[in-house]
Structures
1.
Amino acid sequence: MLAKVHSCAIVGLDAQPIHVEVDIASGLEKVTLVGLPDTAVRESSERVRAAITNSGFFYPQHRLTINLAPADLRKEGPAYDLPIALGLLAATQQVRGDLEDALILGELSLDGGVRHVNGMLPMASMASKMSFRRLFVPAGDAPEAALVEGIQVYPVPTLADLVNHLAGKQPIAPFQNELRFGEGEEPQHPVDFRDVKGQEHAKRALEVACAGGHAVSSASPSGSRSSS
């Protein structure tokens, strides 16, 4: 059986789409992971095995080939754990559902919990630009991903929760970004720059960056602490 799940990679400051392809064939149990994976990605097979088993699902004891395409792009980090696990469950028909419009990201713990991954904002932006309708991310990363408009963000606590959602048993509600406000509404902020004592140059730089939609990088000597 063959299954394909969409994921994402960070290349520099930008995000690139990654297709996680899972094939299950007859033969002795063996996992082959291809597509220029780094050490963290190669180790995903053991995390995925434990997460699937401890979540109450069956891990296929066959010859498994997992391809991260495109093959000429180096894959780094643990963000492919969740899409690989979902691909294995889809290939064994333990989960059903249309995943063509979904982008899936997340590191797995051994008990099936979904952990934080880096680069959520550019990955969510890429998903929106490429017309993905759904983005499944770790629950703790949902507020950041939901800053991007044009895509529904689903916070995923565990692998089992995602499978139940796709099966229609226990739907996960899309995350609602409270920072967005409608036309004519004024944003409400619990704090204001007037509450920051001093730091006039830093506050001015942030105001200019905000007005122009620019990124901000803050640096200080090693061991120093900012005060307000």
2.
Amino acid sequence: MKQGDDEAAIRALEDRFAAAVNAGDVNAIIENYIQDKSLVVFDLVPRKEYHGADTYREDWVDFYTHYKGLPKFSIINLNVTVEGNLAFSYSFAHITGTDAQGHAVDRTVRVTVGYRKINGNWLKVLEHISMPVDLKTGKAEFNTKP
């Protein structure tokens, strides 16, 4: 597979991931990740650090309990770099919806992902989600847009 084909495959993976998030389909979300204990995810919410697909699956199940209905999720400015059987991407994820208390949610986070090509298929093996922090206040900047 040529590098352009690999990049297209990773973009397709991220499209499937976004569609699964929008559908509230946790099984389809987790299919995009390596299915063993080698997966590492640094997330915004407590527990904050996840090792293994089973543990991270629990985070996604919990994610949906914080919303009334399904939130809307989109990936913005996806940049992909491929080198052999390894790749990485960086982008922004935009989430809107209504939280469980009835308040509007409009949040943009930064996302960095590491991928490995295993048996011809690209999978997420490392993910890091973050928000900018105002160093004066020590508080996250929830409304920063790309």
